UniProtKB/TrEMBL annotation, chains A, B:
GO molecular function terms attached to this record: hydrolase activity
Family matches, as PANTHER family: ADP-RIBOSE PYROPHOSPHATASE, SLR1690 PROTEIN
Domain Nudix hydrolase stretches: 7-154
The protein's name in its UniProt record: NUDIX hydrolase
Keyword vocabulary terms for this entry: Hydrolase
SUPFAM superfamilies: Nudix (SSF55811), Winged helix' DNA-binding domain (SSF46785)
Length: 242, 242
């Protein structure tokens, strides 16, 4: 296999989360590996002369068909014993020119609406799927650690920058939809009354003069996320917000 | 030079800030390079089989004498054209076995009280110094970018976790000392009245029954940072703080 134009020491792993209007999923691939079913994050070596951000976009697209996803670097993983599982070693031998090389991997993460993107497996990915984050799944190498860290850091980012969450909602949404999203992010149920009370303190959540139509339950009011108000609120000098 | 036990592709750069009760400084080294005065961040190659965090501690200590500093990884820099300056290339040729190798560098940052630590140059550092961040200084490689990013990310961290700033103050401090620190971090003067009003909203800043002594001006009251109150305030579920 002609891998001579890859840098054998540096890889990128993509930790991509997708909200499907109900729950959060993580994008996984199944490797082409005879007799074995090994799930992994989409990830591969960086090319010689290739920038890290460029590599992250290329690798994600090559393996999963996803493109135009804004990925952010969150952490680099460089433990010398990242590769220990015999199945991983066997796979590296089948695909890499320097399977024994120590590989340091740069983690990138993102969260998107699953419905906005199509995925299809290619390159060494036999399958690609959205896997619910609440279901544990053993992954190759240290990918469980990378995935968990990527999720923890994304949650921290959402706390600081709620716009990341609101981007996952339709333009007009009900408070039930908003709560479903936040419950998926937080990972447990939230008290409805308390949630609504506290959420509506935020002036960037604007009530619309419109209700749900053709629903069997009592039609709920729609709300919208106001980017301008949000920006004003968050553009303030935040040094003293604590 | 016996550099065979180094991984020629991965380095660590340490972006260490120090508060000297007046201003914020960055820790720089001057390289041993004949005829040339090149300032750089303390940084070097990672050893084969060495963990990144361990490498960061070792490299900082070897070049600057600083140890027991809690450094945090903040970003990895992997632009393929990181090395362009002829002075840098010349220096790499004099010290590295593979001076042409593409090196990806992992940035670590920290902020400490300069008075708590002694520094002394060793290894390939000819000098080591605390350099005021307000004075621009051209650095080797892409170290200006690394230093600026490290500072920006540390400031963001201080916004989220003010304890990082309060750790830089003496156990009892005046509001003037607190303001000096924050002005150094923010990079400009702050309105005294407004600063005090907003700061004292934080219950973790506790007034002490004690004033300055032997000062020529009107003695100011001392305050203390209460870690327990701070923890309670910040341990709350912060999902709805916005």
């Amino acid at each position: 296999m002609a891998t001579f134009h890859y840098n054998p020491h540096i890889s990128v792993d993509c930790v991509i989360f997708g909200f499907d209007d109900e729950k959060i999923n993580i994008l996984l691939i199944k490797r082409k590996q005879i007799d074995k079913k090994v799930y992994a994050l989409p990830g591969d070596l960086v090319k010689k002369g290739e920038d890290l951000d460029v590599a992250a976009a290329r690798i994600l697209s090559e393996l999963t068909g996803l493109s135009n996803v804004y990925q952010e670097q969150f952490k680099t993983f460089g433990s010398p014993d990242r590769i220990q599982d015999p199945a991983d070693i066997e796979w590296l031998k089948s695909i890499r020119e320097h399977p024994e090389a120590r590989v340091i991997t740069v983690g990138y993460n993102a969260i998107i609406k699953t419905n906005d993107f199509e995925i299809h497996a290619s390159s060494f990915a036999e399958e690609v799927m959205w896997h619910p984050i609440e279901k544990p799944q053993k992954l190759a190498f240290d990918h469980n650690d990378i995935a968990n860290t990527g999720w923890a850091m994304l949650r921290e980012k959402i706390k600081r920058e709620p716009i990341v969450a609101f981007n996952l909602l339709p333009k007009k949404f009900t408070l039930r939809q908003l709560q479903t999203l936040y419950e998926a992010i937080v990972g447990n149920e939230l008290d409805k009354r308390n949630f609504r009370k506290r959420m509506l303190r935020n002036k960037f959540i604007v009530p619309l003069d419109e209700k749900e139509q053709n629903v069997s339950h009592k039609p709920a009011q729609y709300f919208a996320f106001d980017k301008e108000i949000y920006k004003e609120d968050f553009a303030k000098d935040q040094w003293f917000l604590f």
